[in-house]
Each structure stands twice: as structure tokens, then as C-alpha cells.
Amino acid sequence: MCEQQAVPEFLNILVVCTGNSCRSPLAAAMLRHELAGFPVRVESAGTAAVTGGSASPSAQQVAAEMGLELGGHRAKTVDPGLLEWADLILVMERRHSDWISRLAPEAVHKVKFLAGYPDQEVEIPDPMGQDIIFYRQIALLMKAGVLRVARDIRKKLQKGVN
């Protein structure tokens, strides 16, 4: 799924949060939907994920409300290989960016904040433990960022720029 390939026509996007059970799987599903038909691969991972864990029930509910599916999601932890694989790394919070810079300083130039894409550091709070209304609010904040990312990527890919 995330094997490294020298296939220049694909753009690899990694979406990062903390536990890889709420924000990053939902944002990744949104990106896959928005970029369907484009040569883009989207993965998600967490800085403190419990490997193999599923998406939270609330994240799955919000995804279903948006016409997306998270039932098959299995959490994984960010590792140097994923950071190398990614052409673009989208984070939710400053601590995720800081964590990546400590793990792989060479990947820092690929990091962008999803909510502030492309050039602002706008954080998306962790909804874990919050009610479904908070999850929906976070999903809308992520959706706005996803739409900006998708528009930018479609434009670049249509021009033949990776």
C-alpha cells in the first residue's frame, strides 16, 4: 500500500494527526474523494497511533454522513519510510510538525497545515472524547482545507507539474 515506487506520475500525500483514528483518516478519505481520477495516493498515520486500531465510532459516523467510508481503516504510526514516500505531508497541529522535524528533518519542507493550506499554520483540534457535534465541526474545518489542497493539486497535475 505504501511501498516506495519511482513512479513520477503519482503524487503521494500523507495526512498526519496524533492517534490516526479521527482526523487524519477522515481527511485522507475526503482527499481521496476530491482527487478521484487523478494520479494521487493518499495515506494517513499518527504520531502516537495504536497500530491496527480502527477509526473512532464518531469519525466513522461523520464520514458516513459525508458519503465516505472508514470501516476498513487501520491505524499506523508515522515512520521515516512514510515521510520519505510522501511528496506532501499535511498535519493538524504544530506538535505534529515539530514531531516530524525531529524524526526526519529532511522532510520538513514537505509539511503543510491542512486547515491553513498552503501557507498558514492553522491548527485543527483533536475531537477525541468530544461529542458528535464537535466532530462535525472539525470535519467542516478539515473539508475547507481539503478543498484548497485538492484545487491546488488538480491545477498542478493538469499543468503537468508535480
Automatic annotation (TrEMBL):
SMART domains membership: LMWPc
Domain Rhodanese residues, every copy: 1-94
UniProt key word Cell membrane: no
A GO term for molecular function: protein tyrosine phosphatase activity
Protein name from the UniProt record: Low molecular weight phosphotyrosine protein phosphatase
Active-site residue numbers: C17, R23, D126
Family: Belongs to the low molecular weight phosphotyrosine protein phosphatase family.
Keywords: Hydrolase, Protein phosphatase
Organism: candidate division WOR-3 bacterium
